[in-house]
Amino acid sequence: MSDARAIIARIRDGGQPSTDDLRWFAAGLASGEVTDAQAGAFAMAVLLKGLSEEGRVALTRGMRDSGKVLAWDLPGPVVDKHSTGGIGDCTSLLLAPALACCGAYVPMISGRGLGHTGGTLDKLEAIPGFRTGLTESALRKQMVEVKCAIVAATADLAPADRRLYAIRDVSATVESIDLITASILSKKLAAGLEALVLDVKCGSGAFMKTPERAEALARSLVATAQGAGCMTSALITDMSQPLATAAGNALEIIEVMETLTGTSVNTALWDLTVALGGEVLALAGLASDAKDGEGRIAQALESGAAAECFGRMVVAQGGPADFVDRWPDRLPSAPVMVEVPALEDGFVTAIDGEALGLAVVHLGGGRLREGDRVNPSVGLSDLAGIGEETGAGVPLAMVHAVTEEAAREAVRVVQAAYVIGSEPPAEPALVQKRIG
Length: 436
Hints:
Oligomer: single chain
Number of strands: 12
Largest sheet: 4 strands, mixed
Mean pLDDT: 95
Order of helices and strands: HHHHEHEHHEHHEHEHHHHHEEHEEEHEE
Number of helices: 17
CATH topology of the largest domain: Pyrimidine Nucleoside Phosphorylase, Chain A, domain 2
Strand order of the largest sheet: 1-4-5-12
């Protein structure tokens, strides 16, 4: 019989609990047998002493199995992608329908905005009527008919993670790579995946600011997912600047639709979608290798097939039937729009991505507290990128706000987030490393 105190003490003293102990602890988190105090002590012990690779796999599997684990009977592989979060990162909205066009099934379980980073569900809910809370039966029906869905996790999916996540947030243990790994993968693997690609962000707009931390997380995620039986690889990608030229829910949907429909393609969004999609198609056996997979994803985007599939997903989840044709008329817009003038001449040499993300949150595009209502229309657009030449008075971005006062404050924040230098910097590589 396992005992929470003994498990905590073993980790505290530098030992490793058994696989059975960690699975018992995960089940106890879900059932309530493990108290809040014990969960907090466990999280701190793991943060300070760490788990072995075997221990991470056991904890992840235990948290996955603490609730319902979906099983599928579909005529193709079930796949997904996870991003560790950034600014202007809306690749999921391009990737899910593109993968569906290439023979994969994509039950993408996504999240809401967290801290300074935007949330995929919040972005989709900028589309009038779009529902992210589907029942399991509705999700299964949509997978057969559309082949992709982007939805919120149901309450019975990895309940141990929901409990431990809340405790980590108030016990200063969020940074633990072991616990981050178990949290991300327990939810993803509960969706019954056969292949998973991970987009691990690195830079000023990411949670992992340094290449070393990003690589440590990527290696932990890949090894743990593969140890739990899911074919997985990771790309470490640049988040030293926003991925899209917009940050904010409706504004990012605009950029997605421009890229999907070919009216104004964002090269970085396109390139990263193709790279991630190529990885997952190769992992799932739908492409001979990642390069072949990249070609298939690019064709799905270029042909308009991905846009059509996105439109079917929007309709299936309650959105307008004519969204792909009339999206400019269907999205909300903010009443106040103000340019952000550069304060000096020169080149953009660095951008504080976290500051830009927090500016969007304070405009109302994210949550300062759980339960805050999100305004889908606000945010930043036309963001200048690293290496761009500018001059005093030349716009660095456009603020979309509800009030003039909120807009003025956002202008100050955005100006402070941009570093202007006299020499053009080297362009940061979008994909920095592959792990897997």
